[in-house]
Amino acid sequence: MKGRQGFWARLRRPIRALAPMEDVTDTVFRRVVASTFPPDVYFTEFVSCDGLCSAGHDAVAHRLDYTEEERPIVAQIWGTSPERFYRAAGMIRALGFDGIDINMGCPVKKIVRNGACAALIDDPPLAAELVDAAREGAAPLPVSVKTRIGFREKKTEEWAAFLLDLQPALLTVHGRTARDMSDVPADWNEVRKVVELRNAMGSRTIILGNGDVVENRQLEEFPSRYGVDGVMVGRGVFHDLFIFRRSDSGDPSPPFADLPSCEKLSLYRRHIALHREAWGNEKNFNVVKKFAKTYVSGFSGAAKLRTELMEACGYEEMLTILASAASEQSAIN
Ligand SMILES: Cc1cc2nc3c(=O)[nH]c(=O)nc-3n(C[C@H](O)[C@H](O)[C@H](O)COP(=O)(O)O)c2cc1C
Question: What pTM, to 2 d.p., does this model score?
């Protein structure tokens, strides 16, 4: 059904969402975040509908692994075939997800060359077909769209009006064009235009703004400044793993940077151990090194420790290095 909002309608406002991030927001990272200061909603990494509907199914299906701690959880899909969107949406519904999100924002060349993701901004008829197909396959789950404000040039209002007419449950607006990649600051005034348009159209679509939210206080400030119903945080979670902490509940917790170093290292160990348990040899273990800067920063000896970790050859070696660093640090702390 068009416009069905499902769980989105029940979330408190302003909504705080953890962005989908390839090779970052898998079930392991989402669980780490859930165990500290959880957002209101999680997204999977983007999942190819072609992959899901082909012999290569198993190679992408792990992206749909999740646990109950990560609810509400939305599966993000991408592709160009309405028929595969329909089938993939059915699979995702059967897996118990809370919603489905369609990627219309990824600017990666080899993807947009084939007409998928951000390329859909210049192909509205196909974008509409994909939304319809996902909605049909996913029913009664709510279907949302994540997009940018143009492909080469900004065409925020034209594109947003088209999408809003399709009545997605929710629209996430990343305030950059595809050509911008991540090289220029996100333009939140363009995000505001989408909200104004939504209001003028009398549309019920919920709007999240996305781009460059790096501080906890912006989770409250941006909704009141730009009118969005909530904010989606991507890289900001690397700057502050505790970015979703709530101050309105009198929460005394400091940003992650203020934690004693041994506690930072202990959380990194937990992350790595979870990764080993969840993925074993299935995923390249080096992925966990991406998080070194997040956990191993802001104390004396951090840079040297990160170099040691980068040279580690497996989970065990990383865990051992971190255990001995943590005991040194706890003597200091
Ligand atoms: C490592 C990485 C992977 C990403 N993967 C996805 C993805 O799978 N799906 C998606 O819609 N956006 C993806 N993005 C884009 C983010 O969701 C977000 O829109 C972008 O980073 C801007 O928000 P930020 O400034 O809060 O990071 C990715 C971004 C990064 C940095």
Answer: 0.97
